[in-house]
């Protein structure tokens, strides 16, 4: 698809808009400090030191997930993208025909305008304006329908990704997993792990 519309529609697009700023806080149950009471040989109760150290002495385990990458590179996302593009291919081709027709008529008008009467020129300009308005309306409707369909498909993928993230957090004892950050160390990026988990489902 060669037009700017096709590039905007079917080119590499940023699809992480769906949950780019969401954060999943997974607070895992931490050991609680408590005082133990025990009977002495004389039958009196005394309080002992805590049986376990507080969770604050343990390092916080944090992970990062790049939602945009999941919605671009995971198998379910690629499959959904291909399906949507196939669904909208015919409408995109129709828009291409309308755009080519408008361009052809505009070129013809530019060529013939000098020899046209004022009435002919006004009529041709009105026809071009009507064609352009119709094309812009159909492009806008196309984009709205495409975005709606894409959001529907990707919302399911996001739900599956969040479920996978929760499973990983529980199994690997993460205290917090974030999906948006200004700067991230590769050491805590678990995006590829999440993608692998999604691809297996």
From TrEMBL:
Pfam families: OmpH. Keywords: Coiled coil, Signal. InterPro entries: Chaperone_Skp, Skp_dom_sf. It comes from the Bacteria. Residues 1-35 form the signal peptide. The keyword NAD does not apply. The keyword Nucleotidyltransferase does not apply. Residues 77-141 form a coiled coil. Belongs to the Skp family. PANTHER family: CHAPERONE PROTEIN SKP (PTHR35089:SF1). This is OmpH family outer membrane protein.
